[in-house]
Amino acid sequence: CILGSMTVLGLGKTVSIEGGSSHAEMINSYVAAEAKQESLDEQVKIIEKFSNGYVFKGAVPFYETARDKDGNVTGEETTLQVIYAKNGAKDIYVSSGRLSTGLPENPDTVRVLEDGTELLFTSLVNKIVADDYVITDEEKVLQEAGKLNIAYDGRKGTEVDVMVSSHVIWKQNEITYSLMLMDDEMTAEEMLDMAQEIAESE
């Protein structure tokens, strides 16, 4: 079962990142997830729970390949996507890695931490399309502004799925982190608080 397998263009970048993961590799123990993360990149921060009640639900390895505009492979990486749950709320997804270095160029809100780390909140329209989908000029402008993400899914037909996602993205020690919520059930301040808990953890 593939949780994600698509080519992503967005955040103002021309490079594409293809990524995939398998439900069969889901890790249901936080201790096991910690050990897996240490084996992948021990400098990446993960936490077990947040002060707002979100707690670790699971984690899954995510396999990524970066390509330039000509389709040449520029890098490969295995990262860990961590899922957090809270009763009555939608899951939160936290990912991190060194392959994707893109940051939102026009964030909606910025919070600067004491160590100078900038937490960038942005909302993003995501369109999941078939491989033969042709991007319009208007969509290209929105992509360059960091307001639209086009994801290619080879399993799709002609229908276009549209979802709004909220993100807090930041960079620490050459590692790019992303805290994501599919929908707008939380305010920017609430999501920034969660990101700050990760950024300031040991």
How does this structure look, described?
The protein is 16% helix and 44% strand. With 202 residues, the protein is an alpha+beta fold. The protein has a nine-stranded mixed barrel with strand order 1-2-3-4-5-10-9-7-8. Strand 7, helix 2 and strand 8 form a beta-alpha-beta unit. The longest helix has 12 residues, at 30-41. The N and C termini lie far apart (34 Å).
Care to give the gist of this entry?
By secondary structure, this protein is α+β, with helices and mostly antiparallel strands.
**What is the share of helical residues?**
10-25%
**Spatial strand order of the main sheet:** 1-2-3-4-5-10-9-7-8
Taking all residues together, what is the mean pLDDT?
Answer: 86
Rounded to the nearest angstrom, the radius of gyration is 16 Å
Number of β-strand runs: 10
Low-confidence stretches: 1-14
Overall form: globular
Strand composition percent: 35-45%
Number of helices: 3
Give the SSE order as H and E letters.
EEHEEEEEHEEEH
Blueprint of the fold:
Blueprint: E1 2-9, E2 16-22, H1 30-41, E3 55-67, E4 73-85, E5 92-97, E6 109-112, E7 118-129, H2 137-144, E8 148-152, E9 161-172, E10 175-182, H3 188-199
Key attributes of the depicted protein:
202 residues; alpha+beta; 3 helices; disordered N terminus
